[in-house]
Predict the 3D structure of the following.
Amino acid sequence: MVPATTQERFRLSPRLRDGLIILACVAAQALYLLLTRYGYHRFGFPLDDAWIYQTYARNLAQSGQWAFIPGVPSTGSTSVLWTLILAPGHLLPLDPRWWTHFAGLLTLIATALGAARLLEDEEDSLLVSLAVGLAVAVEWHLVWAAASGMETGLFAALLVWFWVWLRRHDPVGTAHHWRNGLALGLWGGLLMLTRPEGVLALGVAGLYGLFRPGRLTARLRWGLAAGLGFMLLLLPFFGLNVAVSGTPWPNTFYAKQTEYAPLWARPYPLRLLDQAAISVVGAQVLLLPGLLFELWNRLRRRPPEWSALIPWVWGIAHWALYAARLPVTYQHGRYAIPVVPLLVIYGVRGAARLARPHAPQRLIRLASLSWLLSAAALFPLMAGVLGAPAYARDVTFIEDEMVATALWVTENTPPDAVLAAHDIGALGYFAPRPLLDLAGLVSPDVIPFMLDPARLAAYIVEGGADYLIVFPHWNDAYEALVADPRFCPVWSTAERGVSSSLPPSGLGPMTVYEVRAANGCPSGY
């Protein structure tokens, strides 16, 4: 009997491909969580904003209120959809952090499975599709986002599947059927409920469809149906925001832009470059030649293959939007992370086309093999060497600063004490108190003067705050604010024995100041 060949013994099927991708997602997120739990002895989230979501979700689950402070409705939650997903975790008999991490894992799996399918209708083999999915599954930004407790992973997953859907329902191939237009609008509404800038993807896809060849009446009917589908979700969304805060968008939409407006002074091209550069920090930088080759191949076809290029129109527009309105790259560029799957998808597929591992020329063959093997090795290596430790350090910082402060407030202040604070997430979850939110998420009235220390001080005093809780070196305004003699330091994470394995952040330890409006601080403070 002739022994079976290797190909016969191992036949890659779509089901096996998906199973391997799911396994890689589970392993990657488990690495992040296990290192954090057993290497740094922490269990939480790497951003204080994640605790904001937990607070909204808990109040929604337990009382049906869309509120950060019970009884005080507010729109400080950026993502309606993510809040709704987290809410059931507060009705289950387990720590809500586990439900959140499970939901995050599902978003990573969805992103990787969608990435494997985005261009699978082409001549590429299942092996290339598997490579795409595995690369996305272990890309360190995307694993960080999935384990962050934030909506970033959900937004990335929905965007990938939106491009998959659009490619399968290209308006030309479907003759601009109105049902697909309606579905497009609903997709846009779903993306908007995940993050407000989700409307940008709808706008790009809508213009693409309207300008594709087809009968004018069919295109107009398709466009009107898309508008109707979008309005079905837009009107309740705007209605909630206007009813609660008087503005159509969540408070975070306005507060973040105001707080970081000084960054607009930097030249716009440099801000745009920052957004693109932060997205390629990782193994995907090795795939840039493949990415450019793939895009060039699509462009040089006659006519250009717009159905494959349109996601990149959105990606560049997304970078451009953030460069214009919120040019920040902190927290590993979390606002740019939704573009990362495109870098990986097109980079891997372009590398597979550009490389010549079977070329007759030895130099080309060796260079191709070295390039492909280096990229394949660097993706999991970056997750283990860069991503997981970064995640663990981020969680440690939040636990040792924000959560530790919130627990101190719980134990040392009365339940009716009024807090003025900039970082409200952990405070709202662990130490619910009446609150003046200096970041403007829950207290939007502070937004116009949030960078003016004199007006901030007056706002805190006139608002009846008993304590001010901030990082003293958060920015120039806060350095001036805490120098006001009416704010007396009574506790900080450094002075009271809260140890951290991390070096000082430069923001200063989170400090609690007692507000003494009448007489100022007594001697000895």
